């Protein structure tokens, strides 16, 4: 993989400001190319000066760091590393640390690969060549519990992103009972903090549930959740 220079993360003129984040962030950067890790770390430090950054050059090292630092908020992961095939690294981290969202930062730009990464549990996908503003927005949105895709792909009509979706009722059936409760509250317009209060769980737990709901329903935003589930009878489906 070719290393990207720090200039790849220069802010785009007129780009939207990043979403506000509370407190210091704890991020893990996983990439086997030290120059790219350095460029990515510099871009993140500019956007989030208080962020605590951990770095790993492979999946084994990443798992060791995540095991030693359970408070890490987000993992930024390259798909293409030595000793890793396909989505192997993504699925390994997801299986061992399911509560930590994973944002793919990859040199691969094929829409099919991006979509498949989400199906394998990624919370977002950004190409390595994006500007700093887009990277910052991706981090902010994923930490907020949303899925993130590059704007040009996210804006494409649903048919362009894949016409093999199961009916919405089948996708909803993939949710756990707790995810069904969270889904019901999302449809009521409740925020993560309100959901956390009602369920008596932490904000990070709610974010993890929201990310899983988005992934399982194969949508990328809360708005799409509401639209796609508008005609379901949740009194029967969710067992409320």
Write the topology of this structure.
Blueprint: E1 26-30, H1 34-47, E2 52-56, H2 59-68, E3 74-77, H3 88-96, E4 102-106, H4 111-119, E5 124-127, H5 132-143, H6 151-154, H7 158-161, H8 168-172, H9 177-187, H10 192-199, H11 203-217, H12 222-228, H13 234-237
Parallel strand pairs: 1-2, 1-3, 3-4, 4-5
**DSSP helix count?**
13
Structural class assignment: alpha/beta
| Sequence stretches where pLDDT stays below 50 over 5 or more residues | 1-22, 155-163, 234-240
What does the average pLDDT come to?
Answer: 80
Would you write up a description of this structure?
The protein is an alpha/beta fold and 240 residues long. The chain has 13 helices and five strands. It has helices spanning 34-47, 59-68, 88-96, 111-119, 132-143, 151-154, 158-161, 168-172, 177-187, 192-199, 203-217, 222-228, 234-237; strands at residues 26-30, 52-56, 74-77, 102-106, 124-127. Strands 2-1-3-4-5 form a five-stranded parallel sheet, sandwiched between helices. Mean pLDDT is 80; it is low at 1-22, 155-163 and 234-240.
Condensed summary:
This protein is an alpha/beta fold. It is 47% helix and 10% strand. It is globular.
Task: Throw out a few tags for this protein.
disordered N terminus; 240 residues; alpha/beta
């Amino acid at each position: 993989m070719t290393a990207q220079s720090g200039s790849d993360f220069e802010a785009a003129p007129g780009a939207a400001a990043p979403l506000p984040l509370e407190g210091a962030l704890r991020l893990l950067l996983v990439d086997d190319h030290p120059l790219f890790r350095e460029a990515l770390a510099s871009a993140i430090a500019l956007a989030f000066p208080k962020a605590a950054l951990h770095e790993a050059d492979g999946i084994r090292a990443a798992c060791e760091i995540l095991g030693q630092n359970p408070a890490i908020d987000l993992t930024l992961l390259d798909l293409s590393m030595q000793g890793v095939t396909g989505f192997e690294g993504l699925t390994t981290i997801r299986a061992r640390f399911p509560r930590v969202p994973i944002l793919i930062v990859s040199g691969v730009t094929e829409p099919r690969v991006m979509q498949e990464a989400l199906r394998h549990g990624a919370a977002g996908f950004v190409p390595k060549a994006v500007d700093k503003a887009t990277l910052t927005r991706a981090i902010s949105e994923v930490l907020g519990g949303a899925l993130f895709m590059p704007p040009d792909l996210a804006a494409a009509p649903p048919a362009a992103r894949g016409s093999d979706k199961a009916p919405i009722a089948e996708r909803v059936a993939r949710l756990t009972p707790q995810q069904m409760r969270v889904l019901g509250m999302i449809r009521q317009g409740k925020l993560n903090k309100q959901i956390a209060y009602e369920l008596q769980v932490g904000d990070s737990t709610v974010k993890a549930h929201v990310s899983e709901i988005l992934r399982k329903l194969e949508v990328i935003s809360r708005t799409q959740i509401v639209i796609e589930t508008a005609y379901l009878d949740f009194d029967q489906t969710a067992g409320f």
